[in-house]
Amino acid sequence: MSSWSILHRGECMKYDVVVVGGRIGGSISSLFASKNDVDVLMIEKRQEIGVPVQCAEGTTHSTFEILEMKPSSRYVCAEVETGTIHAPNETYINAEDLVEFNNLDKNIAKGYILDRKVFDKHLAIESAKAGTDIMVKTTVKDLMKKDGKICGVVAKHMGKTMEIKADVVIAADGVESNMAQMAGLKAPDNPMDICSCAQYELVCSDFDHDRVHLYFGRNIAPGGYAWVFPKEEGTANVGLGIRGPSETAYQYLKKFISKFNATPVELNVGGVPLSGPIDKTYTDGFLVVGDAARQIDPVTGGGTFTTVPCARIAGEVAAEAVKEEDTSAAFLKRYDDAWRVKIEDILKMSLKCRKVADKLTDDEMNALVEFLNNSKGKEISKIAFIKFLGKHPRLLRLVKDLL
């Protein structure tokens, strides 16, 4: 059905599945629900899908495998082969120096840097081609309920309020999601779990085209880190995330980019929750996916590679529930169970690592990078690592927290 037809269906509409949010989580959920032959509407509050950019735009190779798509130069800006970690004292370690001799996954630092403006819209277009109806510049004001069960949304489009009934509502409304709270599935975030982020797209001839750089230090990005992600030749996303200090992320970013002879062409700011996923991502007639469900890596703040599998599962389970005529919480729990099997262990370990990293001093980070550098070109033995920890007893206590 065309958007013109949607707007002339009257003040009360009915769909099998309504997805709220048109970014990656929403478009993928819609795409796979539509591929399973149910009637889907996707609602996006902004007038254009894909803007503003709200992340560093990196993702893993698995993204395209899950989507059953081939990467395209239309939205892949760079293919990353490796990475470098920079300590507070400006020493550094390259990923390739560790991978070769320590039986690590050779793809650990590999991936893609996307043009999310193009990629997000591409996913929405693919979803529309699969049969999804899309409404932009439309805000969801409330959830509709019948006998305590969610059965649709109340939305406002161009000043007009309408009720849209649905068998299943999928909340993919991002970091600032209020739908999960409306459904009683999410408590307010702890402010210390929110990472304040700022990022420039910079033009500079000195950027590595196939390597990401991560910078750590209390003076660089307290409670977080800074990054340089290459994009097209001569451009990169340069940003950082912080937690706790009185200065803003933008103020820290201005200081950080002074080391580059670069010209900014875009600035984006926002927040990323690093608390780990919410306890429950389903209820009667309702699912939560992506940033709204806090399906975000608590160490990196990355959400694309975690959202993609979850969103596909959400769309497929929603379609299955419609076909089985069972949209109860008991049925929709299949989504919660399935995504947790896929990524929950990764997110739990990542949260532990983040809490350990929060306690690391700059001196301890420097010592760790120095140890790794001294181990270049050889396998790191357990004995060598234990000896290193023996020289840094506080680090030993922190490592125990990971076990």
Automatic annotation (TrEMBL):
Coiled coil: none annotated. Pfam families: FAD_oxidored, GGR_cat. FAD binds at G25, E44, C55, A56, G58, R116, V140, D291, G303. Belongs to the geranylgeranyl reductase family. DGGGPL reductase subfamily. Reduction reaction proceeds via syn addition of hydrogen for double bonds. Its EC number is 1.3.-.-. Binds 1 FAD per subunit. This is Digeranylgeranylglycerophospholipid reductase.
